[in-house]
Amino acid sequence: MSVRLIRDKVQYLGIGTPPDDPVAGQFFLYFKADGILYRKNSAGAEIQIGAGGGGVNVTITLNNGEAGAMVAGDVVVIDTGVDSSCLFSTTNKDTKVAGVISVGGASGQPVQVCTSGIIDAKVTGVVSRGDSLSTSTTSTRANSAGGAVNAVVGKALEASGGGLATIKVLVNLA
Fold it and tell me: Whole-prediction pTM value?
């Protein structure tokens, strides 16, 4: 998005919680006390668009195709039965991997899916720093990819000794 487009659409740019909701077609950009950049649209949805320390995460909006809520850290795949929707990952090395939920939502509601950047992601099993991560048979969890090529969600930035854990992941869908 160019600076000109932002200037024409941003109604508020600042630090701290913005006033109510922007008018239709505009949005707020603001940093909260956690040092993260957020965007708030006219529907009132708050979306984390940048991480502390100057990093920026790229997210896309998909609909939650599950019967239950999706939460930050869930690893998701493209729903092949419904346009623009995602589902919990449940298959090992699934090539339909979409990314990691950054902002969750209820069933049928929009969710934000991180497709590039650093984010906390749910994992299972032993994971070493630098491991490529892929979907696993444990719902919403990634594991060491073990040679998967087209099913990698990203690289582990932290280690996990086994079981269920949440670690920092450099998401990079290729």
Answer: 0.72
